[in-house]
Amino acid sequence: MRRVILSVIFMHVLTAVPAQQGEMRCRLGFSYEFSNNMNWGKDKPVIMKVYPNSPAEKAGVRQNDIIAQINSLKVTDITMDDVDSLLTATEDSHIVLTVCNFSDSERVIPLTKECYSNKSLNESQLADAFSMYSVEDTHDRLFVCPFVTVETENAVDFSQFKTFDFAVTEDAKTTSGIETVINETLKTVLKKKGLSVNALNPDIMIHTYYSFDKNPRFRKKSKETEEQAPVFRYDITRDRVMKFPFYSPATPEAEAEYVLQLGIRFIDRRIVRGRVLWECEANELMSAPYSLEEYAATHIPLMCMQFPYVKYSRNVQFILTKKAYNYTGINYNIYRINEVVSVDAGSPAAVAGILPGDIIEKIEDKRMDYTVPEFTAAYRQFITNTLKYRDRDTRFTDANGFAGRMFWDKFKYNQIAKDFARDNNMTAFSYLYAFQPYINPTRSTSCAFDIRRNGERIRIVVRPVFYSEKTIELN
After folding, report:
1. CA distance 224 to 226
2. Mean pLDDT of the chain
3. Strand 204-214 and strand 163-166: pairing?
4. Contact 33/42 with Cβ under 8 angstroms?
5. Is the Cα dihedral 90, 93, 98, 101 positive or negative?
6. DSSP states of 28-95 as a string?
7. What is the pLDDT of residues 427-460, one digit of tens each?
8. String of b and e for 84-101 (b: at least 16 CB within 10 Å)?
9. Antiparallel, parallel or unpaired: β 114-117 and 24-27
10. Angle at 396 between CA 394 and CA 402, to 5 degrees
11. Nearest to residue 469, comparing CAs of 13, 128, 232, 193?
């Protein structure tokens, strides 16, 4: 999901709503594409991403699962449009998927779709819409890794391979540290994909190779190389985006002071012994020394995202999506934004007593009696007026190509909080990020909603639940 400004989200929802206001939309919580890959799910839907807190995630659907059947229908017997219709249809909220992967030749997964009124906006959508309130918590980044990935030219069904082990290198004794990191990282990644270790008779033998040294071809850096923007990537070991001493893949090799190489090669031991099934090689140009062990721990999970399903032969593009927000369970009316369309069963708002049809007059004493265009205009003006409080050292380009993403300056939280409190900024939806000190200096964990119901005014205090989502996927 891409970050877009509030007005675009509202416009998209408005244009998507059918004339019949009561119609519903449903989601299962995954994205897929039809495979052209002869090694994995040829001509079948392959799961590309599973969304956090979705029915699919809760039911155990996993990235790279191949959908073989929907209900009792084989996907090879129906059209692509039929597949899409079955997965998104609102007539039946229940569906049964039959999937296969490394660990299961056939696994049956019953799913119940989440269905909402077409005129409703949930808090996840609003967190996207108001993401500039807290870029720290809701943003996405596009980053590119200089990986070259190749797979066998033969038509081989990779799902036949169930086990793996590691080839022993001649110099294993002198490089046991790096070998241990590489092998343990690969074990963790491949086990999550459903493969298991078999030292006696593995289906796949894994060879790895690596090097790091000063670049013998280094001559001189150009002005363009000197002025390159810092390279940021997701560090899975620290669970955060980190700055790395890498140059972009387009940098001439002679302008890099250091070079690093890491390669992973999967060798067939089951069908045609010795055949290379899959190989991924990373070649980094660097401005400073960097630990091979750290590189392996951070980048092997990224390298293996293209096994068994390869999308990029080189320069692999990844999108990191991060979203954290306060969840109450209220779904708002897109046409009348202060009206409650529905309340999720068992949610904090439902427990507190908020009901469908309630009119929200204020949230934390911030007025809600504005139209969508008024909220949109105020949000845009707020972004412009508070640019002076952003930390320019945190500037990055998001996955939509917007280069102006910046975190708040940590030394200006008091001034930022005052702007959030001003009535003319219409920041009622900042409650979504009220766990942050620049929005909620008192760090209160409750949220007061002033409700009008059947002519009566009621104050209802809700204790939101903190929702945090983070996914990384191939672009």
Report:
1. 5
2. 90
3. parallel
4. no
5. positive
6. -SEEEEEB--TTS-BTSEEEEEE-TTSHHHHHT--TT-EEEEETTEEGGGS-HHHHHHHHH-SS-SEE
7. 999 999 999 999 999 989 999 999 999 999 999 9
8. eebbeeeeeeebebbbbb
9. antiparallel
10. 140
11. 128
Mean pLDDT of 357-380: 96
Asked if 321 and 473 touch (Cβ cutoff 8 Å), the reply is yes
* 110 vs 224: CA distance, rounded Å: 54
Q: What is the CA radius of gyration of the chain?
A: 25
> Which residue has tokens 């009348």?
336
Share above pLDDT 90 across residues of the chain, in percent, rounded to a whole number: 71
d(CA 271, CA 156): 9
Question: How far from chain centre, in Å, is Cα 79?
Answer: 29
Q: What is the pLDDT of residues 73-114, one digit of tens each?
A: 999 999 999 998 888 887 778 899 999 999 888 899 999 988
User: Which residue carries 């004339």 as its tokens?
Assistant: 19
CA 70, 71, 72 angle in degrees (round to 5)?
A: 100
What amino acid occupies position 53? Answer: N
Q: Is 329 exposed, middle or buried (0-12, 13-18, 19+ CB in 10 A)?
A: buried
Q: Are 425 and 384 a contacting pair, CB within 8 Å?
A: no
Check if the beta carbon of residue 203 is closer than 8 Å to that of residue 269: yes
CA gap 220, 257 in Å, rounded: 9
Residue-by-residue DSSP string for 254-276:
GG-SEEEEEEEEEEESSSSTT-E
The set of residues, in sequence order, having a beta carbon less than 8 Å from that of 25 and lying 6+ positions away, is 16, 90, 115, 116, 117, 118
Contact 299, 145 (CB under 8 A): yes
Q: What is the pLDDT of residues 169-181, one digit of tens each?
A: 655 555 578 999 9
Q: Report the pLDDT value the prediction gives residue 61, as an integer from 0 to 100.
A: 94
Confidence at residue 229, expressed as pLDDT on a 0 to 100 scale: 80
pTM of the model: 0.84
Element (H, E) at 242: strand 240-244
Neighbours of 400 (CB within 10 A): 12
The Cα 460–Cα 450 span in angstroms is 6
